[in-house]
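Input (structure):
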């Protein structure tokens, strides 16, 4: 009984810590977000969103799915310091190499493609976001279930960024400063997190045998490819839009999407916080794992449906608050189209975690790659005939029907079959 209470308190503590993390991560940007829209103007905000979407590919590439695979390895080896150091060293090294490769690719793009060369300095001022992500071992703190460190350090990063934005950014000419301050916040948080992992938790950074790097690369490969495929219907959409529509329309799309993505990220704190616990629970008690999965799924529905209804109904008021003006009908429509993504994103994060725990990363990979390729095949036609509204509907369709339904079918069918047969999955 005492052990169960301790486990519950630890899970609750981690849920609260990650909830606070997500609130901080997006409450502060939501404070700076309206300010940037007003100060930069919708057109410059469209440029900002386009560049940030490109840089986000670097974040995805350097993350490589280690937030799931490395978290899982750390959580299963918490009592083995040497193994922890091996995982830590291997993952950090791989991420650093990935960052270097992306930097070279980004340099090539800015030298050879006009759409990128127009704002070349913005990409390099913002590249520190990727370096900060490499240094910040979120997966380590999640694995050892010490989420408070993540919360505090991210708060420091976001506060530095927000204060600098409000003090120094006053016109569209200050767009470069937005990326510089973003970079400074990310680098400070990343450096502090790395130092805490090494100094306070005794992790040793060591060069590993080459086969260790290949092991962790292979282990996270299917998660990585699925994450890249996800970008084929998330970040890629705004990048492709940037080649065919005005920066103002890109700005409309970015504003509506950012509101929903920010809210969905806060809601995703529950699946993220319980992931280490569910990973261990599957190993020790598949029956309880099955029940807990159903409870979490119902809980997510009860949380996300009211929030979705609120965003849809109050879309004009939300946008007026952010832009400080009466929002154009196109912008209101976009936000209402995106609103159901709040339900979809909550389930998407949870089902992804469950599939990883069930060692079904290959299935996850197939589902998401299919979704990404389908989105890519339809994207250009949709932009030509339906512009930004069509892209918003396409995003909702891909996320809802092509991803959630196959994941839900597999998980509930597989777990029900396992419970009936009383055998391990």
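Output (sequence):
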């Amino acid at each position: 009984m005492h052990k169960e209470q301790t486990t519950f308190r630890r899970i609750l503590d981690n849920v609260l810590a990650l909830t606070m993390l997500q609130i901080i991560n997006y409450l502060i940007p939501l404070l700076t977000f309206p300010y940037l829209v007003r100060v930069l103007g919708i057109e410059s905000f469209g440029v900002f969103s386009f560049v940030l979407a490109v840089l986000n590919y670097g974040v995805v590439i350097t993350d490589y799915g280690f937030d799931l695979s490395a978290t899982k390895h750390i959580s299963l080896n918490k009592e083995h310091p040497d193994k922890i150091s091996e995982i830590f060293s291997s993952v950090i090294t791989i991420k650093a190499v990935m960052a270097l490769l992306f930097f070279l690719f980004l340099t090539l793009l800015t030298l050879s493609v006009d759409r990128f060369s127009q704002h070349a300095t913005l990409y390099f001022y913002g590249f520190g976001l990727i370096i900060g992500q490499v240094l910040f071992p979120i997966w380590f703190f999640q694995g050892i279930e010490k989420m408070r460190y993540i919360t505090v350090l991210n708060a420091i990063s976001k506060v530095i960024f927000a204060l600098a934005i409000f003090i120094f950014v006053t016109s569209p000419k200050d767009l470069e400063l937005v990326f510089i301050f973003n970079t400074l916040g990310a680098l400070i948080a990343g450096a502090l997190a790395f130092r805490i992992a090494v100094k306070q938790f005794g992790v040793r950074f060591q060069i590993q045998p080459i086969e260790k790097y290949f092991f962790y690369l292979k282990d996270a490969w299917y998660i990585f490819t699925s994450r890249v495929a996800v970008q084929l219907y998330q970040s890629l959409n705004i990048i492709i839009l940037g080649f065919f529509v005005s920066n103002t329309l890109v700005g409309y799309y970015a504003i509506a999407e950012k509101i929903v993505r920010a809210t969905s990220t806060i809601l995703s704190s529950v699946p993220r916080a319980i992931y280490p616990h569910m990973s261990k629970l599957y190993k020790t008690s598949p029956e309880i794992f099955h029940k807990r999965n159903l409870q979490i799924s119902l809980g997510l529905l009860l949380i996300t449906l009211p929030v979705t209804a609120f965003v849809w109904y109050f879309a004009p008021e939300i946008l007026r608050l952010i832009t400080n003006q009466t929002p154009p009908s196109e912008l209101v429509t976009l936000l209402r189209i995106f609103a159901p993504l709040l339900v979809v994103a909550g389930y998407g994060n949870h089902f992804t975690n469950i599939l990883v725990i069930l060692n079904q990363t290959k299935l996850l990979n197939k589902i998401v790659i299919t979704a990404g390729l389908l989105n890519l095949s339809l994207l250009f036609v949709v932009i030509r005939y339906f512009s930004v509204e069509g892209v918003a509907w396409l995003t909702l369709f891909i996320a809802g029907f092509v991803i959630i339904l196959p994941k839900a079918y597999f998980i509930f069918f597989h777990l029900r079959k396992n419970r009936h047969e009383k055998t391990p999955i």
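Notes: Residues 70 and 87 are 7 Å apart (CA to CA). The two ends are 27 Å apart (CA to CA).
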